[in-house]
Design a protein that fits this description.
The chain is about 45% helix and about 20% strand. It is an alpha/beta fold.
Length: about 280
């Protein structure tokens, strides 16, 4: 019998999320989508930045704000090309005929109730926000998620860009893991690295990461249904946590990107189910 899976989504779906939902449909019984939204922030941005300046200093705050500006210039250009490539690779609408339930605010009681109505065996997290225990524990087999980086080596957001910034080709990849109370610290289901071809630009690599993530979802779900036990992260492996890139980080990213892509060429795609890749 196919495993029953519900997917947590945000208020809109991009092409990557649609590929991930399609992967769930290929490998499991997709019983429904639970749509959630972020709560409104209680403090203004200016107050947050003023507090940051007091806690970390003016230089670090200026670098952070410069990074936000650089990200606003860089990411949309990349994302438009990634979105176009992923939409071209979609085969129909994977959400057609799938029940959609309103889950209210992220981690709220409405989300728990919507999950219970669908009665899934397992959850996939494609929605916004950090998931709390009341949510990832709402299905008997927990919740899984694709992290765009090789765990445990690189945790946090923007891991592919950090791989370039820190010139760590082994950080470039995707990991399908179980969500727990830590940040990207849960047990492994599957892991993979893409093949970077000559002529690939950064949007091409980003699109390949998303397509590989969808493949890992499908293969990981089949392995879990066949009895795979997720593998805890080895404490002896080095692990770094990164967040938003500052202005100085974006400058280094652009300076190092060409050399980084050349260093990745020639390596075949790598996929491991229930095993950690070399890192």
């Amino acid at each position: 019998m196919a495993m029953r899976v519900a997917v947590i989504v945000g208020e809109s779906l991009d092409a990557q999320q649609r590929h991930f939902i399609a992967a769930v449909r290929r490998a499991a019984d997709l019983v429904g989508l639970v749509k959630v939204r972020r709560p409104r922030r209680r403090t203004s941005r200016m107050r947050r930045y003023a507090r940051m300046a007091r806690e970390t200093g003016l230089l670090r705050t200026a670098n952070f704000l410069g990074g936000m500006f650089a990200s606003a210039l860089t990411r949309p250009r990349i994302q438009r090309r990634v979105e176009a490539a992923l939409r071209a690779a979609l085969d129909g609408d994977p959400t057609e005929g799938v029940p959609v339930l309103d889950g209210g605010l992220v981690n709220g009681a409405e989300e728990v109730e919507a999950i219970r109505k669908l009665a899934p065996d397992l959850l996939y997290q494609a929605g916004p926000g950090i998931t709390r225990r009341r949510i990832f524990g709402a299905a008997p087999r927990g919740m899984i998620h694709v992290h765009h980086g090789i765990l445990p080596a690189i945790r946090g957001i923007a891991s592919p860009e950090w791989a370039v910034r820190e010139e760590k080709p082994l950080w470039l990849g995707v990991t399908l893991h179980v969500i727990d109370e830590g940040l990207d610290t849960g047990p492994l289901v599957a892991q993979g690295r893409p093949q970077v071809a000559a002529g690939d630009a950064w949007p091409d690599v980003r699109a390949k990461l998303s397509l590989l993530g969808a493949r890992l979802i499908a293969e990981g779900l089949r392995a879990l249904a066949d009895g795979l036990a997720p593998v805890p992260q080895p404490p002896e492996l080095p692990s770094a946590y990164r967040s938003n890139l500052g202005l100085s980080d974006w400058i280094r990213f652009h300076r190092r990107l060409g050399r980084f892509l050349r260093s990745c060429r020639g390596q075949a795609e790598q996929v491991a189910i229930g095993e950690w890749l070399p890192q």
